[in-house]
Amino acid sequence: MPRDTQTLSVVLPVHDEAEGVVHVLETIVAAVRHVPEARWELVVVDDGSSDATVERVGAMEPDGYALRLVVLTRNFGKEAAILAGLEHARGDAVVVMDADLQHPPELIPRMVELWRAGAQVVEAVKENRGREGAVSGLGARVFYALFSWLSGLEVANASDFKLLDREVVEHYCRLPERNRFFRGLIPWMGFTTARIPFSVPPRAHGRSSWGRWRLLRLAVSALTAFSSAPLHLVTALGVFVFLISAVFGSIALYQKFTGVAVSGFTTVILLQLLIGSVLMVSLGIIGSYLARVFEETKGRPPFILDRRRSRL
Ligand code: UDP
Ligand code: MG
């Protein structure tokens, strides 16, 4: 039975990619051109670039595919850009990928095949992590171990390079949370998933927009979004410290009544320090969750469109 032509979208969040964006878009189009029974649209989301990204994309003359340019008024972050792209994509399936060729476009035809064979989500899984410093590599490993352990979701080596069925996109756009972690939410939704491995090539142009500090903030926000276990840890710590103090308290009382008190200055100092730091850490953990609640209750939209510069 011949299949009707399907519309397929590629969503690309871009931030300061003027140098390479045109080449990247052309490479993607060349890679997907021969997928049978497909009509393609590229949805480029400019996440507040301060260079000529918007102009470069706007000047392109798409040939045989549709090009949609979604411009955000400022830098809202990659998660917000992905959401903006998904909201504007019209495809029966939507591929989300980075605009620096670190997500090889040659994989897309295979992803489409797997989707047509029934998978609702096709994830490209990192086989190696590309060139990465020792600190970021270790940091990523610690984060993924913690995240998988706390959230019960398998996200190690996951990437934002995914193909989503229309149904998945609809669900994703309807989720009420503002602060999102795409890599965690997609597995959380639980649709049938196929995986294909890929190795991360070095960036084609320009440089990564992520500093260490920004990555750390992202990690904390992802962990607090997917697990309340750290809050329970605070309770557990409290109980633990209480048990210790019960033991030391009994000893102190015993010494008082038997008349051998006074010494034990070191113990007092150590206990002060221990309890003080446990309290601080606990307050910090509670604070991180409070911050999330605060962010969510403000109810601000995750991004704002610059309609005058967009081409929807
Ligand atoms: N990006 C974005 N907004 C940001 C930072 C990055 O839309 O605030 C885009 C960027 O243009 C690229 C993708 O997200 O298409 C991945 O970013 P990058 O290559 O800097 O991250 P890395 O590959 O180092 O994780
Ligand atoms: Mg990159």
Describe the structure in your own words:
The chain is an alpha/beta fold and 312 residues long. The chain has two domains: 6-211, Spore Coat Polysaccharide Biosynthesis Protein SpsA, Chain A (Alpha-Beta Complex); 229-298. It contains ten helices and seven strands. Helix 5 runs parallel beside helix 8 and helix 9 runs antiparallel to helix 10. It starts with 5 loop residues before the first strand and ends in a 14-residue tail after the last helix. The structure holds uridine-5'-diphosphate and magnesium ion. The site of uridine-5'-diphosphate has 16 residues, from strand 1 and helix 3. Residues 98, 100, 102, 203, 208 line the site of magnesium ion (MG).
User: What's the CATH first level of the largest domain?
Assistant: Alpha Beta
Counting DSSP H or I runs of 4 or more residues, the number of helices is 10
Distinct small molecules bound, one entry per kind: uridine-5'-diphosphate, magnesium ion
Radius of gyration: 25 Å
Q: Which fold name fills CATH's third level, the topology of the largest domain?
A: Spore Coat Polysaccharide Biosynthesis Protein SpsA, Chain A
Unreliable segments (pLDDT under 50, ≥5 consecutive)? none
- Side-by-side strand order of the widest sheet: 3-2-1-4-6-5-7
What is the helix/strand order? EHEHEHEHEHEHHEHHH
Mean pLDDT comes to 91
Net shape: elongated
Query: CATH superfamily membership of the largest domain, which one?
Result: Spore Coat Polysaccharide Biosynthesis Protein SpsA, Chain A
Named at the architecture level, the CATH assignment of the largest domain is Alpha-Beta Complex
Number of domains: 2
> From the helix content, strand content and strand pairing, which structural class follows?
alpha/beta
Helix content: 40-55%
The major β-sheet equals: 7 strands, mixed
Could you tell me the strand content as a percent range?
Answer: 15-25%
Kindly, what is the distance between the CA atoms of the first and last residues, rounded to a whole number of angstroms?
Answer: 34 Å
